[in-house]
Predict the structure of Methylenetetrahydrofolate reductase.
Amino acid sequence: LTVRDRLAAPGRKFSLEFMPPRTAEEDPTLWRAVDRLKQLRPAFVSVTYGQGGSRRGKTAEVVGRIIADTDLTAVAHLVTVGHSAAELRATIDGFADAGVRDILALRGDPPGDPLGEWTKHPHGFSYAAELVELIKSMGDFSVGVAAFPEKHPRSPDLETDTRFYVDKVRAGADYGITQMLFSAESYLRLRDRVQAAGADVPLIPGIMPVLSFPRLIRICELSGQAIPVQLAERLSAVGDDASAARAIGIDHAVEMAETLLDNDVPTLHFYTHNRANAVIDVLDRLGMNNPVPTVQT
Ligand code: FAD
């Protein structure tokens, strides 16, 4: 089944994002997390593409292994930055050869500073919408795109940003996944804007339990999002007390998820950073830890 099929099924569900390991030492961390989290039956999992278009072979390798070794639906992220159209076509063919039927189509950020100058590859694309069109022209892939409830940092205003998201849906995207949220309200406002514009494909909110104050600041720096004041105050108030900060991060993720579920959002997407514990804690609290019964032999 593709993500498109999984999202069409009724009921509450969740999905997970993993990253290809950067070094051989990180390999076991990823696969341990996949092994633990797959038991909670995610609707799908996705695997990121190296920042700036780096380590491109890794995504196909990790997604291919997940597809071969598990019964999970797995999505390969793909970015346009740094690639010609011909390279993108070859990568999409490589994904298809690895059994991939789901792709998250992204523009990507420049290598180094994500908010630095964006340069189009001379034979590449300027925007993710063009990648959506390319992927759709190459076969029956299920394609997702990124959405930004507080607007993408390069967009002039929320309305323009929403219009460009809707363009991606018109180009053929089957669903959207948001940047990691700090408030449920920002997601709900985006959903209203998108629905008013007539784009009715599923829009999945992205959640990451943020377990420390420095981590929160780093995420905001990298993503260009405003620092969420209340969460920042709660986290900084506990100083170096890691377990208190962890509890605050989990509480915040749970509260946000509960508001979303109460507002008829059926699917939640969790950024795992290849760590299982925090996501398992949040799913436990939400009653969404739907483990497969262990077969006793
Ligand atoms: P676009 O949709 O192309 O938008 C980029 C900018 O251009 C926006 O400001 C948009 O408003 C503007 N724009 C769009 N169309 C037009 C137009 N026609 N005219 C003028 N302006 C326009 N990065 C990675 O490197 N690897 C990953 O695996 C990865 N995974 C991600 C997963 C999710 C769920 C999200 C939310 C982001 C992910 N990113 C990843 C980051 C993403 O690549 C960056 O945020 C990037 O800057 C934006 O990508 P996009 O696909 O939204 O681009």
Observations:
- Residues 2 and 73 are 6 Å apart (CA to CA).
